[in-house]
Amino acid sequence: MSAMLEVRDLRVSFGGTTVVSGVSFDLEAGECIGLVGESGSGKSVTARSLLGLAGEGAAVSASALRFDEHDLLSASPRLLRRLRGREIGYVSQAALLALDPLRPVGREIADTLRLHGPLGPRQRQDRAVELLAEVGVPEPELRAGQRADELSGGLRQRAVIASAIAARPRLLIADEPTTALDSTVQAGILRLLERLRAEGMGLILISHDLAVVSRLASRILVMRAGEVVESGPTDEVLGSPRHPYTRRLVAAVATDRPRWAPLTEARPMAGALAPSPSEALPPAAVPSEVVLEASGLVRRFGDRLAVDDVGFSVRRGSTLGVVGESGSGKTTVARLALAIDRPDAGTVRLLGEPWSEATERERRPRRARIGAIYQDALSSFDPRWTVGQTLADALSSGRTRRAGEEVAELLERVGLGPEFMARRPRGLSGGQQQRIAIARAIAPRPDVLICDEPVSSLDVSVQAQVLDLLDELQRAYGLSYLFIGHDLGVVRHMSDELLVMRGGRVVESGATERVFGDPRHPYTRELIAAAPRLNGG
Amino acid sequence: MRRPRPLELIAAAVLLFLVLAALFPSLLAPGDPLAIHPAESFLAPSWAHPFGTDESGRGIYTRIVHGAGPSLVIGLSATAIGIGLALVLGLAAGLGPRWLDFGTTRFVEVLFAFPGLLLALLFIVIYGPGVVTSTIAVGLSTAPGYARIIRSQVLLVRRAPYLEAARVLGRGPAVRVFRTLLPNLAGSLFVLVTLGIGQSIVWASSLSYLGLGAVPPAAEWGAMLSAGRTYVASFWWMSFFPGLFIVLSAVSTTLIGRSLQNRVRSA
Amino acid sequence: MNRLALPLLSAAAVALLLAGCSTAAPTNSEPVSGGTLVYASGDGEPTCLDPHVGGNYPQALVATQYLESLVSKNKDGEIIPWLATSWKEADDGLSWVFTLRDDVTFTDGTPLTWEAVAANIAHLQDPATASSTGYLALQKVTGVEKVDEHSAKVLLSAPDSALLDSLSQPWLAIESPTALKRSQEVNCESPVGTGPFEVTAWDRQQSITLERNKDYDSPPADAGHKGPAYLKKIVWRFLPDSASRYAALRAGTVDVIDNVQPDTIVAAEKDDTIDHLDAPRPGASNRIELNSGKAPFDDERVREAFIRSADVDDAVKSLFFGTAKRSYSALSSVEKLGYSDKSLFDYDQKAAATLLDEAGWTEKDAEGYRVKDGTRLELDFPVSTNQSIPAEQSLFEQIQATAKQAGFKVDLHPLDLSSWYGALAKNDYNLVSAPYTKVGPDVLRILYHSDGTIPAPSGYFANLAQLKDPKLDALLVQASETSDQDERAALYKQAQQIVLEGYYILPLYDQQNHFLYRADVKGIRALPTVSTPTFYDAWLDR
Amino acid sequence: MAGSIAAQPPVTTRTGGRARRWLPWLLLRTGGVLFVLWAVATITFFAIRLIPGDPAEAVLGGPGSQASEEALAQARREYGLDRPLILQYLGYLGRLLTGDLGRSYSLRAPVAEVIGENLGGTLLLALLSLAAAAVIALGLAAWSARGGKGASGVSSVLEIVGAAVPHFWLAISLILLFSTWLGWLPPVSVPGPAGLVLPVLTLAIPLAGFLGQVMRESILDAMASPFVLAARARGEGEGGVFWRHAARHAALPAIGLAGWAFGALISGAVVVESIFARPGLGRSLLAAVQLRDVPLVIGIVLVVALGYMLVTTLTDLADRLADPRLRRAGR
């Protein structure tokens, strides 16, 4: 019997520019297909065009776009409105914003029932509570009355799914359902989707994270610039990728890649500073000097204890990784290390001298010794400056003629050409922005660099380039990093020693391989188990 | 959201006409705006007098052209006073210590508690009507509004990540304020200015309506509009055209301000 | 809120009802009793309804409906009986005996007796009343004695030929003595008189409600009928904006409007649903006074030059569309003893130029203004935006423009009432225009006698031309004391010649006083005393 | 006074904090209100004194009264104008605390009574105009949100033009159009609804222009937001999306604007009440200033200031209730 969903060479263009072309796949009830690709690959537009929501001014065409007996291409707006929610559920991309902040969560779920069900208001409200329970939300009665911002990221995502499946659709499209979620929460959501698929719901899973897709999808389509470059059963595509782009994608995944192992083939650092391959070995584990140390750090916001008795030390030339879920206090530790925020108790010492106790005036000359890069690089640039001005300001060489030369050299060191000087950061890609942020951070030749989730919002392939760049700079200048992240794979690949934080406390610390080898604290074990593995583990 | 092209052109054309009229009135309207011709009073709009004539036979078109200067001057200077005062208050509230913010906000609230018109009325009744006093009065009564906006903008920019990044790079407070904070504030100030000019002209004309604005026989739009209002039943053009130009100038300044803002934001 | 709504709703309901059927109803010839008339005034709302307090024209307009005076005047200007049936001046002119009607009672039941005359004159002369017009008119009165129950003798310090003229004015109307004993605040809100209507409610800023006095039967001799008024009620509203006031009349929301602009008079004449009542006010003509008390107008030649340089005729024609006739006299055309001399006011720029040269203003500065040993020929002209209607303010602008040709720099200062009086009190003016309404030629004594330059405590003084001519003073005093009409006429003629030929004033036109009313309102007439309309004979043909 | 406030984010004092810390917020708020009222009364009291002219004269029936010396002296005694200014001020403050606003010079009646009579008219006018402005602004926003490119362009221009029209020019044009030419509505206020239409429209249109511009931005943001996409994906029609989601988000900036709008309405009322001859605070304020009626001016200004503080407190409260993020963010 023919498949539930049939898509034959789908094409979507916005006013002349083609965004999706030649996408074809079938889907049976109870089957899960994965759409993988980086941002801008058209995977999200493909999924939305099934609902007729490709976007303002989209021209959608296909030789076949059928769902059961309905031809989605010629469907009237009324028919499409009846299908959406009743037959095809959709979990939107930025799930954390998919709930109206001003309305109670229960009401958003009840809306689907109102549109497609015979139930009266009272029953709808009760049904919404049941649905919340069904998707694993504790205390559903209380949560239904609360608003989106009173729920954690995981609970919000579950509420969105509850809203999408309220009318028992036969096909569910999940667009990046687990982005920006901590690994344990991510695992929970994937288990829920798996249960729905097992109960017979067709599932289209869209993500840039190969590991996430590989856990659920039986077949995978790899998309690049609007076209499907490779498709087939999951094990085949991930085990022995045929298309070079897929190979690069698989290789770029940092999980399980040993320390210092380059994630990208291309050498990002040309020029004199590139270390010869022989030096690629990790520096001898000589007991080098401690550049940054903290002991007994405590920080309280109102009656919430954000950081509770945290101590660490970063050695020259090595990286201390800090991993933990959102709300575990990692960012507060970073701000205390940078002395942007004052600890309620405990001290931070930089290069052996007091740092957190010093006054801002005393600290200012030594600020050059410690730099920082952030997850959102763009917001850390002065919007009115070009790249050249930003870097010249960092070099504080001001207007001198040599400034131009020094800036070009700095750009080259992070793998960008001089033509970037005149550009505005706003017009560049995420990866390029982060490179400029790194260039600005290393301009004053710091000893320590605080990296607060530097690659969390980057695509896998871009992530790889930035991580390799950080490795090379560490090796070239003996930089020490305090590397903060929630993606276990990335933190493990980058750090020599590790801190695992939970609820503001350090639950475990030690050499990275030792912690991953035999995790002593149950929470660390849970974290490691939850981290998605490439080979379907 | 891009504003449709033609609208910007129209607004630009109107503004160009106004500036030209303000700088070289005799170029666009050779007649003397003050000369009276009793025999030609109350003439309807015709080729000779495109906007008709007023009660003393003076061409309304000529007086509008010659009135552009004073009206724009009032608009600009009232806005300058309003935004100048607001900048001081806004920066003090936004940048200063908490008690300064509390004090300044209370002061702004006191200014706000006065209905704008009463502030202007008191000021004018004390220092007498006329272009200068009505300009200062309009400036004073618009200042609290701007102060609140500037304060919230300053608070916004003050918490921006790029200011914290500047601190990490070791920039002192003075450098952070003057090299980074203020220039970024200028962007939003620009929109306020363009909006302010339009509103000040509208406001000045309301004061003239109440007889508190420009002194006759000055060819100021508000005074002309106010003079025309008693003849509105029989000679509609005496009020219509000055009112039209007040609206046109306010609309075009706002449109230009808005489209420049969009262009800056999306550049 | 409800206290406000009740009187309004009833008035509105009736007004709307009447407005609704105003056009269709058949016209009948005999007066119909009943109905409510809505009067819309453009003046500011009076602060007190008792015209004794203060005493301005808006008070006179409304007081005419509920207060009556001892005497009135007919169209020919002769004094006729009203509350007083007859009056006789003593031979030495130092006292007058008035015989009152014996069949009149005030609306609060108090009978009209000689005590009423005594009580009202005492009320007017009591400083607490703060009366100005009434107080000035009774300067010579020293007391009142009883002759019999219905006749009173008024004692004077000196003969006063203008006494009867003064007593005919609403500002000296007779109020119930019992009512006068109440506090001024209460009396201001509900004065009690003998008129055809009585004040029943006053919602400030909204309206005054006057209702018919059922047992009224004391109309002046020249009234249209006897017995109570036809109208059941009058709603007196205040619509300050002239454009919306005229629109309200055309829409039928109101029945009568005052302070009518010249252009609306012309438009109304073309509209057959609206009629026009022109009632120029007595007393002085509308004129511009030249302040001879200080330079440059202390020099008669400069005064004449200014008057010669003002093209008033063209301005009056273009601004007033023929609704106002040019005046060449100090007095209103209503005054029988008015004297005018057109030749003194011909527009003649050449004469102005020669006169200024003679007076030493020979040089001219860059902008064409005349200069004499360093000082520019500049004149301050404070204009009261309350008292000068827009057309008159435009007239001043035109005079400013023509005077400029002769070299005079005229600075117009439009001011609100307080600042205007402040400027006059500080002698901060060279030119000023101030209307003065008073029955009879005696207004000349107030305006041009040298005593008029002595300011009252508030700084106010009437002689704005600051004319101090002993010969003129003598003429005016003599005229105010002689009761021989011919001699009085001759004296006033000479007085006016001195004022006109001295170029102290530039007469413009009679003090304009125009009313427009819906054509189906019949029987409206203006009292020949101060030209205020009375609605005693009025009835609604609806 | 149509102050020129376009996109103005709701500004709240810095004392945010969680629900149970309402008390400090309340205390500070009342403290602020009392301070502002005191300041307003003081400034007006002394500002009026700067106006040329003798206050005693204002007592005796306004300017130009040729009242005699004794009358002026008596008036000064009666109203305490002969005492030194400071004593007059302290006396005035003392009576103010007991709620006695004194007697109006020109109207010879207690100020409280005069205000009581006129407050109703202005309040009715202000509230109706606010409601009408909201309806017009929301209507325009709904039309532009669903009408596509053309509609949103036209409606945004309409808003800008609306905000640029001086009150009295609009009033005159409306009278000319609806009363003189079409004859549908009375040109001046008559008791009953018909008399309210034109005055309300005159105040509502400029206000709608401002509200519209402010709401437009948050509506467009909301329409392009993920939660609207999710709503559409649930099968919600365009109408449902607008009224259930976008409109509510538009309310936030509009609430923030309420304080300023109140001031604009009062200033507008002065002009509209004199053109349409409606009794109200605006018109009495203008008359009181011109007649130098000190107690009445201060009384009206105090009532308006109290009204303004009430509105800003309510908006502050509404902000916190409508948008919990504000409360949590401690803004």
End-to-end Cα distance of chain C, whole Å, is 32 Å
Give me the count of strands of chain C.
Answer: 25
Strand order of the largest sheet of chain C: 8-9-10-1-11-21-12
Radius of gyration based on Cα positions of chain D: 24 Å
Oligomer: heterotetramer
Give a structural overview:
The complex is a heterotetramer of chains A (537), B (267), C (542) and D (331). By secondary structure, chain A is of the alpha/beta class. Chain A is 35% helix and 24% strand. Chain A has 19 helices and 21 strands. In chain A, helix 16 links the parallel strand 18 (448-452) and strand 19 (480-485). In chain A, helix 7 (183-198) crosses helix 19 (522-530). The longest helix of chain A is centred in the C-terminal third of the chain and has 18 residues, at 460-477. In chain C, strand 14 (363-364) and strand 15 (370-372) form a beta hairpin. With 331 residues, chain D is mostly helical. Chain D has twelve helices and no strands. Chain D has helices at residues 22-50, 55-59, 69-78, 85-97, 111-164, 167-181, 194-223, 226-233, 238-275, 281-290, 294-322, 324-329. The radius of gyration of chain D is 24 Å and the shape is flat. Chain D starts with 21 loop residues before the first helix and ends with a helix. The interface between B and C is medium-sized, with 25 and 33 residues.
